[in-house]
UniProtKB/TrEMBL annotation, chain B:
InterPro entries: Ribosomal_bS18 (IPR001648), Ribosomal_bS18_sf (IPR036870). Signal peptide: none annotated. Belongs to the bacterial ribosomal protein bS18 family. Binds as a heterodimer with protein bS6 to the central domain of the 16S rRNA, where it helps stabilize the platform of the 30S subunit. GO terms for cellular component: cytosolic small ribosomal subunit. Keywords: Ribonucleoprotein, Ribosomal protein, RNA-binding, rRNA-binding. GO terms for biological process: translation. The gene is rpsR. It holds the Pfam family Ribosomal_S18. Part of the 30S ribosomal subunit. Forms a tight heterodimer with protein bS6. This is Small ribosomal subunit protein bS18. One of its GO terms (molecular function) is structural constituent of ribosome.
Length: 127, 80
């Protein structure tokens, strides 16, 4: 069992319910294979840096999970067959050391102070 | 304008990421990564940005991952 991070970019045309359904189709096999879904982050609709299949936006979903390595290949295969998936990426998640956790907590505290939270780890306050 | 024989003003380059005490660069953090790509979308070389070896290799990895997810461009639109 390894710790992974999977990000999937769905077609922006999918409605909320369909996205939920798709997310379900990612998380369910993980649980079935004896893995564990740790976190599901929805970044929502974002502008793509370049056009993919004539789409300018994408619905981003980020899943942190513990899965058996064999499942990743299967997951990859399913994403590629799925027409509503524009892009997908699974990487090994780095185990957070105590030092990074402490730094992250500090940065979060600072960000909260500045009251300008961004969806993804806020850039260090440049004062 | 610099006169002949007069040295151009030099500022020692330093790794901005070390300065900020960044431990790890995340491919999801596209806002930070945009500082390390040119307007054409290329990765800025170390000799320009002054990044240290450790952070530069983290940047390259992160930028490449971010490109796959279309968080960052492979190339800028107007040059295509």
């Amino acid at each position: 069992m390894k710790l992974y991070e999977t990000t999937v970019v769905f077609d922006p045309g999918l409605e909320e319910a369909r996205v939920n359904e798709e997310v379900e189709r990612v998380t369910q096999p993980i649980a079935q294979a004896g893995g564990e879904v740790i976190e599901v982050q929805r970044w929502g609709k974002r502008k793509l840096a370049y056009m993919i299949r004539k789409r300018r936006d994408g619905t981003y979903v980020h899943v942190k999970h513990k899965s058996p390595p064999e499942l990743i290949a299967e997951m990859d295969r399913r994403f590629r067959l799925n027409e509503s998936v524009l892009r997908h990426l699974t990487v090994l998640a780095v185990k957070e050391s105590k030092k990074t956790l402490a730094a992250a907590a500090e940065a979060a505290a600072k960000a909260a102070e500045a009251a300008s939270a961004s969806p993804v780890a806020a850039a260090p306050a440049a004062e | 304008m610099a006169r002949e024989g007069e040295a151009r003003s030099f500022r020692r380059k330093f790794c901005k990421l070390c300065f900020d005490k960044v431990d790890r660069i995340d491919y999801k953090d596209d806002r930070r990564l945009t500082r390390f790509i040119t307007d054409r979308g290329k990765i800025v070389p170390r000799r320009i940005s002054g990044t240290c070896a450790r952070h530069q290799s983290q940047i390259t990895e992160a930028v490449k991952r971010a490109r796959i997810l279309a968080l960052l461009p492979f190339t800028s639109e107007q040059y295509r």
